[in-house]
């Protein structure tokens, strides 16, 4: 089991109490090696969309499933997103540095945020998809050190926040 410090464990407990979420259950799932127990639900309710995300059409609960935490979907040559990193990313998801919308798909967004990974501030791209009444984290696309100016300059995404 990853040694999460007491402060982080208390933060998770308070976060779940305040938001009616299952971040602690998600952490336990990661700690078990991404193995479901018995009839455990396949998705984890890890947050609620905040005011900024709602402004751009993302509403409801924030969920995550096993497919989003496939190691191949969130690696970088210098870093693999671990349990503590997942918690950090989820705790800041409602305060992104930037939001991009995928051009080919109307329901998919990338939320760029930053977290401290291995002592460095890293830019993290969190892909989310709107479902009927929620948004689902579909993958951590990037965990790397990136120039903020390059965000939204790809052929497949357009920057919608901050507005230019």
How are the elements arranged and paired?
Elements lengths: L5 H14 L3 H9 L11 E6 L2 H5 L5 E5 L9 E2 L2 E2 L2 H10 L5 E5 L5 E10 L2 E11 L4 E10 L12 E5 L3
Parallel strand pairs: 2-8
Antiparallel strand pairs: 1-2, 3-4, 5-6, 5-9, 6-7, 7-8
Core attributes:
164 residues, alpha+beta, seven-stranded mixed β-sheet, two-stranded antiparallel ribbon, 23% helix, globular
Summarize the structure.
Helices cover 23% and strands 34% of the residues. The chain has helices spanning 6-19, 23-31, 51-55, 83-92; strands spanning 43-48, 61-65, 75-76, 79-80, 98-102, 108-117, 120-130, 135-144, 157-161.
End-to-end Cα distance, whole Å, is 44 Å
In total, the number of strands is 9
Strand fraction band? 25-35%
Which structural class fits the helix and strand makeup?
A: alpha+beta
What Rg is obtained from the alpha carbons, in whole angstroms?
Answer: 15 Å
Anisotropy-based shape? globular
Uncertain runs: 73-77
Main sheet: which strands, in order across?
A: 1-2-8-7-6-5-9
Major sheet, described briefly?
7 strands, mixed
Task: Count helical runs.
Answer: 4
Please estimate the helix content.
10-25%
Order of SSEs, N→C?
HHEHEEEHEEEEE
**How confident is the prediction overall: mean pLDDT?**
83
């Amino acid at each position: 089991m990853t040694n999460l410090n007491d402060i982080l464990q208390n933060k998770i407990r308070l976060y779940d109490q305040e938001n009616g979420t299952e971040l602690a259950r998600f952490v336990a799932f990661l700690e078990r090696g991404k193995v479901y127990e018995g009839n455990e639900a396949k998705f984890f309710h890890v947050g609620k969309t905040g005011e900024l995300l709602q402004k751009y059409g993302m509403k409801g609960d924030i969920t995550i499933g096993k497919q989003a935490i496939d190691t191949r979907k969130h690696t970088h040559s210098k870093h693999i997103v671990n349990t503590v990193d997942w918690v950090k990313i989820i705790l800041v998801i409602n305060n992104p540095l930037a939001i991009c919308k995928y051009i080919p798909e109307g329901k998919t967004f990338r939320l760029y945020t930053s977290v401290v990974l291995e002592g460095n501030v890293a830019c993290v791209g969190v892909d989310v998809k709107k479902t009927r009444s929620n948004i689902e984290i579909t993958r951590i696309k990037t965990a790397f050190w990136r120039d903020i100016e390059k965000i939204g300059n790809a052929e497949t995404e357009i920057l919608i926040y901050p507005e230019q």
